[in-house]
C-alpha cells in the first residue's frame, strides 16, 4: 500500500472578509471526504494563520519537512506567501478558493470552483510554473501600477463592501471613484535588452497570470509556464474614456485599442519620473520610486 499523501492545509480566517462562510474545520472535512471518494490516503495537518507572514513561515517549514502538497486556503495574498515559501522545493501548491477574488487560482486553472480545487489537491497532478520577482520578492500572479494600484488601495480601505456587493462590483465601484480624480503617471520603462522610453500611463500591469481585481483580464494572453511576463501599458485617455474602458478591461479587450502597448519580456525596470508609483503585488499594496520586475522560470510546482 502506498504511503499516505502528506498535506498541510493553511487556513486564513480573514480571507474574503469571511464571505465564503467556511472555516478551517469545514474545509479540512471536505478535503478528507474528497480524498475518500477518490480512494487516496492522506495525512493532513491544519494550521490557521493569525497575521501577515504566518503562511510564509508555514510554507517554508512544509518544504523543509517534505510535505507533498501545501493547500493554501485564503486570498491571493495568502497564496503568494504559500508559493514564495515552497518555491524551488518538491512541495506542490494547492489553492482552496476562500478569498474575495481568487484571481491566482483562475489564472492557473481557468476556474474558481471549490470542488475541483479540492480534487486537484488530493490527486496531485503536478506541473511546473513560473513566478515573478519584484525587487527580489517572489509573486505568482500580477503586479499592478498606477490606476490599477490606486483602485486596489481603495478596495483595501473598503473591504467590507466585498461582503455586501461581491469582489467584481466592489472593484468596479472603486475604479469609478478613483478615475474621477486620477492623474496619469509619467514613467520611464526599460524592457530587458532595450533602452528606456517614457510613457504617460493609466493602467500598467505586469502579469505572470491573466486576471486580477476579481475578474479584470488585464494581461489576458499571459501564461504561467512560458518563461515570460506579459506587460500591458495603457496610456491615460481622460476621465470619460477611462470610465468607458473599464468594461473593456474586464474582458481583456483593452489590448486591441491603439492607446495600449502589449509586450512580452523576461524583465523590465519601471521608474516614476516625478513621484513614487503606487503598486500592488498579488493584491498586497505598496509604493516605490523604482521597480525591477523579472521572471523566475519553472520554480514552482502546482497541482492545478
What do these coordinates show?
The protein has 304 residues and is an alpha+beta fold. Helix content is 32%, strand content 34%. It has 2 domains: 5-125, Probable inorganic polyphosphate/atp-NAD kinase, domain 1 (Rossmann fold); 139-297, Tumour Suppressor Smad4 (Sandwich), CATH 2.60.200. Helix 1 (24-38) packs across helix 5, helix 2 (54-65) packs parallel to helix 3 (76-86) and helix 6 (147-157) packs across helix 8. The longest helix has 15 residues, at 24-38.
Reconstruct the topology from this structure.
Layout: E1 5-11, H1 24-38, E2 42-48, H2 54-65, E3 69-74, H3 76-86, E4 92-97, H4 103-109, H5 114-123, E5 127-134, E6 137-139, E7 142-146, H6 147-157, H7 160-165, H8 167-179, E8 185-191, E9 197-207, E10 229-235, H9 239-251, E11 260-265, E12 267-272, E13 277-281, E14 284-288, E15 290-302
Parallel strand pairs: 1-2, 1-3, 3-4, 4-15
Antiparallel strand pairs: 5-6, 5-15, 7-9, 7-13, 8-9, 8-12, 9-10, 10-11, 12-15, 13-14
The major beta sheet can be summarized as: 15 strands, mixed
Radius of gyration equals 19 Å
> Helices and strands: which structural class?
alpha+beta
What number is the mean pLDDT? 90
Uncertain segments: none
CATH topology of the largest domain: Tumour Suppressor Smad4
Count of helices?
Answer: 9
* N-to-C SSE string, H for helix and E for strand: EHEHEHEHHEEEHHHEEEHEEEEE
In the CATH scheme, the class of the largest domain would be Mainly Beta
Helix content: 25-40%
| Coarse shape | globular
Gap from first CA to last CA: 26 Å
Q: What's the quaternary structure here?
A: single chain
Q: Per CATH, which architecture of the largest domain? A: Sandwich
Amino acid at each position: 500500500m502506498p504511503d499516505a499523501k502528506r498535506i498541510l492545509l493553511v487556513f486564513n480566517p480573514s480571507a474574503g472578509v469571511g464571505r465564503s462562510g467556511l472555516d478551517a474545520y469545514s474545509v479540512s472535512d471536505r478535503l478528507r471526504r474528497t480524498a475518500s471518494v477518490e480512494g487516496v490516503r492522506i495525512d493532513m495537518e491544519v494550521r490557521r494563520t493569525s497575521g501577515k507572514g504566518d503562511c510564509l513561515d508555514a510554507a517554508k517549514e512544509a518544504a523543509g519537512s517534505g510535505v507533498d502538497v501545501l493547500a493554501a486556503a485564503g486570498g491571493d495574498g495568502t497564496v503568494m506567501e504559500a508559493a514564495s515559501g515552497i518555491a524551488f522545493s518538491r512541495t506542490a501548491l494547492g489553492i482552496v478558493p476562500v478569498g474575495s477574488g481568487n484571481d491566482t487560482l483562475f489564472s492557473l486553472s481557468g476556474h474558481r470552483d471549490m470542488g475541483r480545487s479540492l480534487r486537484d489537491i488530493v490527486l496531485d497532478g503536478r506541473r511546473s510554473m513560473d513566478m515573478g520577482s519584484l525587487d527580489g520578492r517572489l509573486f505568482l500572479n500580477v503586479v499592478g501600477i498606477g490606476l490599477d494600484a490606486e483602485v486596489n488601495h481603495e478596495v483595501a480601505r473598503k473591504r467590507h463592501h466585498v461582503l455586501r456587493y461581491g469582489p467584481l462590483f466592489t472593484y468596479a465601484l472603486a475604479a469609478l471613484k478613483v478615475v474621477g480624480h486620477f492623474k496619469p503617471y509619467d514613467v520611464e520603462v526599460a524592457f530587458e535588452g532595450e533602452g528606456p522610453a517614457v510613457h504617460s500611463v493609466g493602467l500598467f500591469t505586469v502579469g505572470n497570470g491573466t486576471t486580477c481585481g476579481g475578474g479584470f483580464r488585464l494581461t489576458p494572453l499571459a501564461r504561467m509556464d512560458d518563461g515570460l511576463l506579459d506587460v500591458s501599458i495603457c496610456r491615460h485617455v481622460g476621465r470619460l474614456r477611462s470610465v468607458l474602458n473599464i468594461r473593456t478591461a474586464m474582458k481583456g479587450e483593452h489590448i486591441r485599442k491603439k492607446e495600449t502597448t502589449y509586450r512580452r519580456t523576461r524583465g523590465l525596470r519601471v521608474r516614476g519620473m516625478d513621484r513614487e508609483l503606487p503598486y500592488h503585488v498579488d493584491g498586497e499594496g505598496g509604493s516605490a520610486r523604482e521597480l525591477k520586475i523579472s521572471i523566475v522560470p519553472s520554480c514552482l510546482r502546482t497541482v492545478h
